[in-house]
Design a protein that fits this description.
The protein is of the alpha/beta class. It has helices at about 5-15, 60, 65-70, 150-155, 160-165, 175-180, 190-200, 220-235, 255-260, 265-270, 275-295, 380-400, 415-420, 460-480, and strands spanning about 40-45, 50, 55, 90-95, 105-110, 120-125, 140-145, 185-190, 245-250, 325, 335, 340, 345, 350, 375-380, 410, 435, 440, 495-500. It folds into two domains: about 40-260 and about 380-500, SGNH hydrolase (Rossmann fold, 3-Layer(aba) Sandwich), CATH 3.40.50; about 265-375, no CATH class. The protein has a five-stranded parallel β-sheet with strand order 7-1-8-9-16, with helices on both faces. It has a three-stranded antiparallel β-sheet with strand order 2-3-4. Strands 6-5-19 form a three-stranded mixed β-sheet, with no helix packed on it. Helix 8 runs parallel beside helix 12. The longest helix is centred in the middle third of the chain and has 24 residues, at about 275-295. It is globular and about 75 Å long. The relative contact order is 0.13.
């Protein structure tokens, strides 16, 4: 008797001598609902584009929201190519490369030493942008980085280089999605518009009334937003009498790490750099003297109308220094033919964009001649304007869904992130309570337990799985579905290395 036969008869013997019963195999029920899932399409921008750690990459594609949803729930085969695909390990960084040129890849997060809680970020060596399936028509995902409502609804996409690089023609994402004759759609409109407007330092037009006047960094007026999203929904629903869909709403992105991770204090960036600290102090003193000299020559200007000084409180120790930033709303001052720069210091509740993190260590934001530009921060009032716009857009999204006769459900990302940020306070330094899933606490941060990837605006695979579960909840509740949720704890999170 050979070894295989021996083991087989031993197993039969042991099984016959015990009362053990083998468990029935786990059978996942076929997904069903009062909706037709035979042709699902995703239409939108960055949230469906597979951006991970700032880059389009093979990992980002694999764990993107559409790819996970379609494949983990069995709507397509595991080897199907459903979206524009970049097949590169480190990929192409959409934030550090400009005009589709360059070969910087995904962000690398690392702890300089294994006994520190503070991580650093750098870019890996990546590859030039190449879509492996460029121009293919058999897609179910029509989403690209930074795709705004303009790219979704209008016939020219010259404003979005990623869309042009893939299709190289002039059809809107909506028109392309309609050619699939979708039975079910997932639509994300407005997120990239809001992010682009905020990321520009709200230097764009906040209320564009005509699509032909739209430029990158602008926002649509509420009336035009309502028109565009209603028209998009109507066109998709018109492709079949039984077509239904999900609408994503917009979370309060101001608390995302991209906006809230960096402190507005200068101290962390100059504390260990003696010469930089001294240079920053004395150049600020020279700047203040220019202000003093100007108002000595113009004594009639009231105190409340005078430009702010750079107040370094703790002297060269810089304990209370706020980062130095441009502010074009300040009054023009010209002294002896010299224009005095329009500078102020950021306050505790202002927001410095995380993209500036590495530059801050080199004097950016501390030296008078190298301030943070207006497109690198938001002050408190600007942040409130963005939050008000988000609320207005979400109100419209809900109204469109409510008027759809049950054909549309909302994936409430606004409520989800509100829940994720319970307990959080930037002012008091209180952490979030996060979200507990099967005994594992997830938090809305860039961390080992976080749902954000290394860019601070896009989710990691765990975060994408949590979003998919919100989609599944919406389908199950609104369309009487039986879809099974994913287990986020079985997916990889944001990787951190040790060592420089």
């Amino acid at each position: 008797m050979n070894r295989k036969h021996f083991l087989f008869f031993m197993l039969l013997f042991l099984y016959g001598c015990s009362e053990f019963e083998f468990p029935d195999p786990i059978i996942t029920p076929e997904p069903t609902a009062d909706a037709d899932f035979s042709k699902i399409v995703f239409i939108g921008g960055s949230r469906f584009a597979g951006i991970d750690d700032g880059a389009l990459s093979s990992r980002g594609y694999q764990f993107s929201v559409p790819n996970l949803f379609l494949k983990e729930l069995g709507f397509v085969s595991s080897d199907a190519i459903v979206a524009p695909r970049v097949n590169s390990e480190n990929g192409f960084n959409i934030y550090t490369n400009t005009n589709l040129s360059g070969n910087e890849g995904s962000f690398r997060l690392f702890f300089p030493q294994d006994d520190t809680l503070f991580f650093k970020r750098e870019t890996r060596l990546g590859t030039p942008l190449t879509y492996e399936n460029q121009g293919v028509d058999q897609l179910q995902v029509f989403s690209f980085p930074n795709a705004t409502i303009f790219e979704i609804t209008e016939g020219t996409q010259s404003t979005n280089p990623y869309l042009s690089a893939f299709f190289n023609n002039s059809s809107s994402l909506l028109e392309r999605a309609k050619t699939v004759s979708p039975s079910f759609f997932v639509l994300d409109m407005g997120f990239d518009d809001i992010f682009g407007f905020a990321k520009s330092g709200i230097t764009g037009n906040m209320a564009v009334n005509v699509m032909s006047n739209f430029n990158k960094g602008d926002l649509l007026s509420e009336d035009l937003f309502r028109e565009r999203i209603q028209n998009t929904v109507d066109e998709l629903l018109s492709t079949g009498t039984e077509v239904k869909g999900l609408l994503f709403n917009i979370p309060d992105i101001i608390d995302y790490p991209f906006f809230s991770l960096m402190p507005t204090s200068i101290n962390n960036h100059v504390r260990s750099k003696g010469s930089l600290r001294i240079d920053a102090h004395f150049r600020a003193v020279d700047f203040n003297n220019l202000i003093f000299d100007y108002y000595d020559l113009h004594p009639g200007v009231s105190d409340e109308d005078r430009r702010p000084l750079l107040d370094f409180g703790g002297g060269i120790d810089a304990d209370r220094w706020g980062l130095v930033a441009e502010d074009e709303t300040l009054t023009d001052l010209v002294l002896n033919g010299l224009t005095i720069p329009k500078l102020k210091q950021l306050e505790l509740l202002d927001f410095v964009f995380y993209q500036n993190e590495q530059q801050l260590w080199t004097g950016f934001g501390s030296l008078v001649e190298n301030p943070i530009r207006e497109d690198g921060y938001l002050d408190q009032d600007e942040a409130k304007l963005i939050q008000e716009k988000i609320v207005a857009y979400n109100t419209i999204i809900k109204e469109v869904a409510d008027a759809s006769n049950g054909k549309l459900a909302i994936v409430d990302m606004a409520k989800f992130f509100e829940e994720m940020f319970v307990g959080y306070s930037r002012l008091l330094g209180n952490p979030t309570e996060g979200l507990n899933i099967d005994g594992v606490r997830l938090e809305p941060l860039i961390s080992r337990d976080g749902i954000f990837s290394g860019d601070g605006i896009n989710m990691n695979p765990v975060g994408n799985a949590v979003i998919i579960n919100r989609m599944i909840e919406a389908i199950n509740q609104h369309f009487n579905g039986n879809l099974t949720k994913l287990d986020p704890n079985n997916l990889p999170n944001t990787p951190f290395d040790i060592g420089n």
